[in-house]
Design a protein that fits this description.
There is one protein chain. This protein has 454 residues and is α/β, with parallel strands linked by helices. It is 48% helix and 18% strand. It has helices at 26-33, 90-102, 112-119, 125-136, 140-150, 153-175, 185-217, 231-239, 282-297, 313-324, 344-347, 365-377, 379-383, 390-411, 416-434, 440-448; strands at 3-7, 16-22, 34-36, 49-57, 60-70, 81-87, 105-107, 219-224, 257-263, 266-272, 300-306, 328-334, 354-356. A seven-stranded mixed beta sheet has the order 3-4-5-6-2-1-7. Strand 12, helix 11 and strand 13 (354-356) form a beta-alpha-beta unit. Helix 4 packs antiparallel against helix 5, helix 6 runs antiparallel to helix 7 (185-217) and helix 6 (153-175) packs antiparallel against helix 15 (416-434). Bound molecules: guanosine-5'-diphosphate (GDP).
């Protein structure tokens, strides 16, 4: 039986490196390259035990280190696994790897250990995928999502929907013998209700993809407002240094500047826009058009008002627009150091997030950051804190399409066969999500994104 091996730690100098072996003969290969101190023998080592000793190749001693043994099926891959920890130099680590290869192991492919864990039924495909998400997580929220998925949160949710669909399919099969007109209306109603609840559940998971992307790539954020209200000053405040050109002349911020700001776990991609106003000035017009487009693309809108001046019609209009907006919005009443005019409080009444701030002095910055933090960490209230990846989203999209088809077929009074076909397709897409029913090429594709040694 073949034994695979790989360096599981990073290819950089460090304190320790780990070379991992997996396969039925993994412990035999380890015994050829590792000599425990004292009179111990590798073949006698129990699972979950380790030994200190010499790592050797042929007669030559390469390094000293620690060998850990996991015996099948109680290991990551479900097979016999041996892990050799040696000194963390690049050369010495490669020498140990070479010694393993010279003694019967072959170099592992990307993600091959986790692929074995999947093939041996240790992990569902979504759990296996979350291993890589854990490695690439850059913040608390994405790390927590990976952990939840690894613990089976996504698997359980998709299995629960699939379970409900299979029950429906069984019901449909039982009805197949009856003439359709005899079916009680109440049964059809219940069926419609179940399909709808499945659609809702799937839809929440689909939405979590966008949230995850936003967290991974940064939240597209637009700073909008009339000229001279303090947008560039606010941008500089958030960035912590002078970036945008600030002048007293209205309409002088003409370019769309984009910068990245990190607030705790969250990354904002900030765009400072030319003021959202009607203009005849050709140069600024381009900026205004771009700004409006940006507004549509933004996941967070910081709408700035000059609080030292009483609100005018334009401010009223903008506030109205914000109230209609479905996105996340914060109204910022700026220039609080100059004393604020009354009027904004009432105008902004229905908006959830309104904040008084001085972009110039920085007063209120902490509160702004707290609001932003709260907005985006409350993702988990919507989707249980998990973010699906692209492959998972494609399966969920497919399930959603089929469910909607099935419900439409039901509503239009089509034959129950048509409903059955759609629900079967939806259940199939969910089986693909968990990896229960999946082609070899998709599995290969999933693990090709892994690193070697995982
Ligand atoms: P923008 O056109 O919206 O980008 O506005 P700017 O950031 O260029 O600011 C316009 C003017 O308002 C500048 O003179 C800023 O110094 C001033 N300004 C901006 N924020 C504040 C503030 O919080 N307090 C005071 N007193 N002045 C501010």
């Amino acid at each position: 039986m073949s034994v695979i091996c790989a360096i599981s730690t990073a290819q950089a100098p460090g304190a320790i490196s780990v070379i991992r072996l997996s396969g039925e003969g993994a412990i035999e290969v380890a015994a050829r390259v590792f000599e425990p101190a004292g009179n111990k023998r590798v073949s006698d080592m129990a699972g979950y035990s380790c030994a200190y000793g010499e790592i050797k190749s042929g007669g030559e001693r390469i390094d000293d280190g620690v060998l850990t043994i996991f015996r099948a099926p109680h290991s990551y891959t479900g097979e016999n696994v041996a892990e050799i920890s040696c000194h963390g130099g690049i050369y010495v680590t490669q020498r140990v790897l070479r010694a393993c290869c010279e003694n019967g192991a072959k170099a592992a492919q990307r993600g091959e250990f986790t692929k074995l864990a999947f093939l041996n039924g240790k992990l569902s495909l979504t759990q296996a995928e979350s291993v890589m998400d854990t490695i690439s997580a850059q913040g608390e929220l994405t790390l927590r999502s990976a952990k939840l998925i690894r613990e089976g949160a996504l698997y359980k949710r998709s299995e629960s929907v699939k379970g409900r669909l299979i029950k429906l399919l069984a019901q449909l099969a039982a009805w197949a013998d009856y003439p359709e007109e005899d079916l009680p209306e109440v049964e059809l109603e219940t069926m419609r209700g179940t399909i709808e609840s499945c659609e809702r559940e799937i839809n929440t998971l689909i939405k979590s993809f966008d949230n995850g992307m936003i967290l991974r790539r940064g939240i597209p954020t637009a700073i909008i407002g009339k000229p001279n209200v303090g947008k560039s000053t606010l941008m500089n405040l958030m960035l912590g240094y002078e970036r945008a050109i600030v002048t007293d002349i209205a309409g002088t911020t003409r370019d769309l500047l984009e910068e990245t700001v990190r607030i705790g776990d969250i990354t904002l991609k900030l765009t400072d826009t030319a003021g959202l106003r009607k203009t005849n000035d050709e140069v600024e017009k381009i900026g205004v058009e771009m700004a409006q487009r940006r507004l549509g693309e933004s996941a967070l809108i910081l709408a700035v008002f000059d609080g030292s001046k009483a609100p005018d019609r334009e401010d009223e209009q903008l506030i109205e627009q914000l109230k209609q907006s479905s996105g996340r919005v914060i109204a910022i009443i700026n220039k609080s150091d100059l004393g604020l005019e009354a009027g904004y409080t009432e105008l902004c009444g229905e908006l959830t997030n309104v904040i008084e701030l001085s972009a110039k002095s920085g007063e209120g910055k902490g509160e702004l950051e707290r609001i932003i933090g709260r907005m985006f960490t409350s993702f988990d209230e919507e989707d249980g804190g998990i973010f699906v990846n692209e492959r998972q989203k494609a399966c969920l999209d497919e399930a959603m399409r089929s469910l909607t088809e099935g419900r439409t077929a039901l509503d239009m009074g089509m034959t129950l066969d048509a409903v059955t076909i759609s629900l079967e397709q939806a259940a199939g897409a969910l089986a693909e999500l968990s990896g229960e029913r999946i082609s070899e090429s998709v599995v290969d594709e999933v693990f090709s994104r892994f690193c070697v040694g995982k």
